[in-house]
C-alpha cells in the first residue's frame, strides 16, 4: 500500500514539475502587479497536507542526484586511476581512466566478475552492487577486497582466486608514493622538526633536563651534572627544553602557569539513575589569564642562562623556534599579541639574546590569527607569508636576512588557502576567489605562481566553485565545479598548463528535478552602503502561487570566522524542506563575515551584534522589490550557535523587520562563550562593549516571538548562556517558548527540535495552528 501511494505521489510530482517550469523558469517567477496580492495564509487542512508532502519529499528526494564527483584512486606510475559511481537503486559502476591518453572505460565487466566471484566463493554476488575496495590494476589482472576477503582476478579469463594475505591498500592520502614530488612541503603552520620530545641533544652527546623545577645538563654517557638555573619554583618552574640542530644551544622557558577554570552542566536524565549527574570541563572565557613563558637560551660554551630580550609570551601557548638552517646561532618564532592586533616573526640571536622583527603587522581592528600562514624555505632564509596587511588576503615573500617584503600575488581578490610550496621550482600552489569579474566572488579557483610573482597559471577557468585533488606526482588533477543551481561537472586536467584532458562526469539530476523541486536561486543585491554586492540563495516551495505573498525565513549564521552561503550544488536539505511548508527560505553573507576584503570583514570588530543585519535586511528588501510575492512584513530567522546568537539578536536589535526567531544553543553573551573565538572578534580587554551587545543585557527589548532551544550537555557553548537569557526574559516579563533537550550536546535540537522549529514558524508567520501531534493529526 505504501509503495502504491509513493508511486502515485511521485507521478503527481512529475506532472507538477512540467506545469511549474517554475524550476528556474522566468515565467513562474515573474511578479504580478502588486495591486491586490493576498497574503498566503493556508487553512489548517492545507497546512497538514503541506506537512505530509514535505515529509514525503524528505524521503523521495534522497538518492536522486548521481555522479556529483570523482574520487580518483591513482595507480602506481601516476598515469591511470579508477573511480566508482553510485547510481539509482544503490547500484554502482567502476570506471578506469588512462590520464596519459585521455580515455576512460568500464574498469571491468561487472556481470562476468560477479559470476566468477560467486563461482569461486560459493556465495551469490550481485554485479550491479559490487562494493570493492583496495582495487589495484596489475596488467590484465586486478586485485581487490570484497567484504573481508582479498581476491585476484584475470580480466582476460575472469578466473578469480582468493589471496591468502592482504594486497597493498590503495591509498589516496597526500604523500603516498611521493605525492608532493621532490621539493614540495605541504602547508603546516608549525614546523615541529626541531621540537624534541625528549631532552637529548641532536648529536646524542648531552642531556638537558628539569630537576626540582630548574635546568640541568649532563653528558649522555654519564658524568657530573651542571646546574644552569637556581630560581625555579613549583609556582614558576622551568620547562620545555628545545635543542638547536647543531647541539650548541638549547632553549628553556620560565613558566608562569595559569589553570583554566571550569564550567558545569547537569545531565538530568541518565538511564538507571535517580539523580542528576554534575559534569564539568575546563573552559577559558574572555578575559581569563593564560600561562606565560619567559624565553632563555642556554649555551654549552657558558653556564649562565641568557634571557632573550623580549617580553613574556603570554598568549596562545609556548612559542616554537625555527632555527636558521645556514647558521644555528639564530632562530625565529611567531608571536600574535593578545587582542589580535599585532603579529610578529621575531628573530633571536642565541649568542647575545638580542631580537629583531623580521615581520611586524599591526592593525586597528584585528588580525585573523587562525588564518595566518607562514612557510619557511629551508635553504634560502625566505618566508612565504599570507596576510591582509594591504586590505586583501595576499601572498608575500619575506627575506629572512634583510626583512625585505615583496608581493607574490596582488589585487582586489582573496587567497583562500595555500596548497603547497615547491621550493625547487620556486612556485606556490594556492586557491583563491574573487579574481573573475562578474562571477560570484566566493567561488574558489585554483592557481600556481612563481615566488617572484610571475607566471600565474589559472588551473580551473570554468565559472563555478571548484574542488580539486591532485595526482600523486601532481601531473594531473581532478576538478569538480558547480554552483548552487548548476549541477556538478568533473574534469581531468593537466597541472602544467591547466589544459583539459577530458570530462569525466556530469552530474545526473534528472530524477531530482522529476520530483518538482525548484532549484535555488543565486541572488545578489547591494548592501548597506549601496555599493557592495551581498550574495545569497533563495529556496521556494515547489508549488507556490506567485499571486500571493509568502513569509520569509532567513537561515542565519554570521560568525566572522568564514562565509556560509553554499557555493556548490544544493540538493535537497533543510532550507528546501522548510520552504515546502509555504515559506521563502533564504540565506546570505552580510558584512562582517570572511572571504571578502579586509574592510568587509572589519565590520564585525567589537561589533558582533551587528551580524551584517543592515546588509541582510537590504538584501531581503531587494528580493521583495524583484518578487512582490516575498512578504517583508512577515520575516523570521533561525540559527544555531553563533547563528543562535544572531537569530535572537535580530529580534532584539531589528524588531521593525524580524518578527519571529528560533535560536538554538546561542552564545548570547560573548563573555560566557569560549575565549579564543570571542576575543578574536570582540577584542581584549573585555570592556563595556561586551555588555552593550549582549542578548542577555538587551533581553528587555524583545517584541517578536522567540523559541529558545538548548541541549543540557552542550560542551561548546555553555548551556547557561541560554538559561541566563531565559532568566533575563522572565525578569523582564517577556513571553517566549523554551525547549531544553535532555542529554543533547551542541546542536539545533535534533529531530524533535526541528519539528518544534517548523511548528513555531507555521504558527507565528503563517498564523495557522500546526499539527496537534498528541492527537496524531499527522
In words, what does this structure look like?
The protein has 778 residues and is of the alpha+beta class. Strands 1, 36, 37, 38, 39, 40, 41, 42 and 43 form a nine-stranded mixed sheet that branches. A five-stranded antiparallel sheet has the order 10-28-29-30-31, with no helix packed on it. The chain has a four-stranded antiparallel sheet with strand order 2-3-4-5, with no helix packed on it. A hairpin with a 5-residue loop joins strand 2 and strand 3. The longest helix is centred in the first third of the chain and has 18 residues. The N terminus is likely disordered.
Pick out its properties.
778 residues; nine-stranded mixed β-sheet; five-stranded antiparallel β-sheet; 13 helices; 43 strands; globular; disordered N terminus
Summarize this entry quickly:
Strand 6 (132-138) and strand 7 (141-146) form a beta hairpin.
Nearest-integer average pLDDT: 92
Radius of gyration: 30 Å
Major sheet description: 9 strands, mixed
Quote the distance from N terminus to C terminus: 17 Å
What fraction of the residues are assigned to beta strands by DSSP?
25-35%
Can you tell me the overall shape? globular
Would you report the number of β strands?
Answer: 43
Uncertain regions spanning at least 5 consecutive residues = 1-33, 169-197
Structural class: alpha+beta
Count of alpha and pi helical runs: 13
- As a percent range, the share of helical residues equals 10-25%
SSE order and pairing:
Layout: H1 2-19, H2 26-29, E1 38-39, H3 44-60, E2 73-74, E3 80-86, E4 92-98, E5 103-106, H4 110-121, E6 132-138, E7 141-146, E8 149-154, E9 160-162, E10 184-186, E11 206-211, E12 214-219, E13 226-227, E14 238-243, E15 249-256, E16 262-267, E17 277-282, E18 292-299, E19 306-307, E20 322-323, E21 330-336, E22 342-349, E23 355-362, E24 373-376, E25 382-387, E26 394-399, E27 405-407, E28 414-422, E29 427-433, E30 444-450, E31 457-458, E32 465-470, E33 476-483, E34 486-494, E35 500-506, H5 510-514, E36 521-526, E37 533-539, E38 548-555, H6 574-579, E39 584-588, H7 598-602, H8 613-626, E40 630-640, H9 642-653, E41 658-664, H10 675-682, H11 688-692, E42 705-711, H12 720-731, E43 737-741, H13 750-765
Amino acid at each position: 500500500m505504501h509503495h502504491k501511494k509513493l508511486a502515485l505521489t511521485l507521478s503527481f510530482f512529475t506532472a507538477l514539475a512540467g506545469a511549474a517550469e517554475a524550476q528556474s523558469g522566468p515565467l513562474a517567477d515573474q511578479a504580478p502587479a502588486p495591486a491586490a496580492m493576498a497574503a498566503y495564509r493556508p487553512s489548517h487542512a492545507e497546512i497538514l497536507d503541506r506537512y505530509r508532502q514535505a515529509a514525503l519529499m524528505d524521503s523521495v528526494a534522497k538518492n536522486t542526484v548521481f555522479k556529483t564527483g570523482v574520487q580518483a584512486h591513482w595507480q602506481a606510475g601516476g598515469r591511470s586511476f579508477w573511480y566508482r559511481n553510485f547510481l539509482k537503486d544503490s547500484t554502482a559502476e567502476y570506471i578506469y581512466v588512462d590520464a596519459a591518453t585521455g580515455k576512460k572505460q568500464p574498469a571491468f565487466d561487472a556481470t562476468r566478475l560477479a559470476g566468477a566471484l560467486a563461482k569461486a566463493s560459493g556465495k551469490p554476488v550481485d554485479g550491479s552492487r559490487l562494493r570493492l575496495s583496495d582495487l589495484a590494476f596489475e596488467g590484465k589482472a586486478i586485485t581487490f577486497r570484497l567484504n573481508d576477503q582479498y581476491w585476484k582476478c584475470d580480466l582476460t579469463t575472469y578466473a578469480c582466486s582468493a589471496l591468502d594475505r592482504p594486497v597493498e591498500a590503495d591509498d589516496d592520502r597526500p604523500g603516498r608514493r611521493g605525492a608532493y614530488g621532490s621539493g614540495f612541503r605541504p602547508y603546516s603552520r608549525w614546523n615541529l622538526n626541531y621540537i624534541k620530545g625528549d631532552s637529548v641533544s641532536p648529536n646524542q652527546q648531552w642531556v638537558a633536563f628539569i630537576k626540582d623545577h630548574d635546568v640541568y645538563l649532563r653528558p649522555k654517557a654519564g658524568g657530573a651534572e651542571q646546574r644552569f638555573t637556581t630560581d625555579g619554583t613549583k609556582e614558576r618552574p622551568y620547562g620545555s627544553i628545545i635543542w638547536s640542530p647543531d647541539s650548541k644551544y638549547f632553549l628553556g622557558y620560565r613558566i608562569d602557569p595559569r589553570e583554566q577554570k571550569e564550567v558545569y552542566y547537569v545531565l538530568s536524565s541518565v538511564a538507571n539513575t535517580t539523580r542528576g549527574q554534575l559534569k564539568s570541563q575546563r573552559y577559558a572565557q574572555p578575559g581569563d589569564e593564560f600561562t606565560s613563558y619567559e624565553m632563555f637560551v642556554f649555551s654549552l660554551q657558558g653556564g649562565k642562562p641568557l634571557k632573550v630580550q623580549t617580553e613574556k609570551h603570554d598568549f596562545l601557548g609556548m612559542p616554537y623556534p625555527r632555527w636558521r638552517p645556514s647558521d644555528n646561532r639564530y632562530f625565529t618564532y611567531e608571536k600574535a599579541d593578545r587582542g589580535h592586533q599585532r603579529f610578529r616573526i621575531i628573530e633571536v640571536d642565541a649568542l647575545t639574546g638580542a631580537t629583531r622583527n623580521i615581520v611586524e603587522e599591526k592593525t586597528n581592528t584585528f588580525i585573523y590569527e587562525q588564518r595566518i600562514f607562514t612557510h619557511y624555505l629551508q635553504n634560502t632564509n625566505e618566508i612565504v607569508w599570507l596576510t591582509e596587511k594591504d586590505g586583501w588576503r595576499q601572498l608575500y615573500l619575506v627575506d629572512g636576512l634583510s626583512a625585505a617584503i615583496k608581493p607574490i600575488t596582488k589585487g582586489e581578490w582573496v587567497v583562500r588557502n595555500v596548497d603547497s610550496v615547491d621550493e625547487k621550482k620556486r612556485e606556490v600552489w594556492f586557491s583563491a576567489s574573487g579574481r573573475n569579474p562578474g562571477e560570484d566572488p566566493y567561488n574558489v579557483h585554483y592557481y600556481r605562481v612563481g615566488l617572484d610573482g610571475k607566471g600565474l597559471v589559472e588551473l580551473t577557468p570554468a565559472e563555478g566553485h571548484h574542488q580539486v585533488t591532485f595526482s600523486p606526482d601532481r601531473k594531473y588533477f581532478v576538478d569538480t565545479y558547480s554552483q548552487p543551481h548548476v549541477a556538478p561537472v568533473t574534469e581531468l586536467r593537466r597541472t602544467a598548463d591547466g589544459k583539459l584532458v577530458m570530462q569525466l562526469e556530469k552530474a545526473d539530476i534528472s530524477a531530482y528535478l522529476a520530483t518538482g523541486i525548484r532549484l535555488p536561486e543565486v541572488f545578489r543585491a547591494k548592501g548597506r552602503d549601496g555599493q557592495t554586492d551581498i550574495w545569497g540563495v533563495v529556496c521556494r516551495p515547489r508549488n507556490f502561487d506567485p499571486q500571493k505573498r509568502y513569509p520569509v525565513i532567513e537561515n542565519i549564521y554570521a560568525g566572522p570566522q568564514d562565509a556560509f552561503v553554499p557555493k556548490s550544488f544544493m540538493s535537497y536539505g533543510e532550507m528546501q524542506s522548510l520552504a515546502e511548508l509555504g515559506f521563502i527560505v533564504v540565506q546570505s553573507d552580510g558584512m562582517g563575515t570572511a572571504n571578502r576584503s579586509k574592510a568587509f570583514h572589519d565590520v564585525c570588530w567589537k561589533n558582533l551584534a551587528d551580524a551584517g543585519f543592515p546588509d541582510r535586511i537590504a538584501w531581503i528588501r531587494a528580493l521583495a522589490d524583484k518578487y512582490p510575492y516575498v512578504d517583508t512584513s512577515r520575516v523570521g530567522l533561525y540559527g544555531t550557535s553563533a547563528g543562535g546568537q544572531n537569530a535572537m539578536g535580530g529580534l532584539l536589535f531589528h524588531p521593525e523587520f524580524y518578527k519571529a526567531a528560533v535560536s538554538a544553543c546561542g552564545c548570547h553573551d560573548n563573555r560566557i562563550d569560549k575565549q579564543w573565538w570571542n576575543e578574536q572578534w570582540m577584542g581584549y580587554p573585555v570592556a563595556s562593549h561586551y555588555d552593550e551587545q549582549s542578548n542577555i543585557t538587551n533581553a528587555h527589548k524583545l517584541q517578536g516571538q522567540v523559541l529558545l532551544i538548548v541541549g543540557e550537555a552542550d560542551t561548546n557553548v555553555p548551556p547557561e548562556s541560554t538559561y541566563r537569557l531565559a532568566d533575563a526574559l522572565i525578569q523582564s516579563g517577556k513571553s517566549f517558548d523554551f525547549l531544553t533537550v535532555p542529554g543533547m550536546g551542541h546542536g539545533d535540537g535534533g529531530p524533535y527540535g526541528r519539528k518544534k522549529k517548523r511548528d513555531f514558524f507555521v504558527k507565528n508567520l503563517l498564523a495557522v495552528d500546526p499539527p496537534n501531534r498528541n492527537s496524531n493529526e499527522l
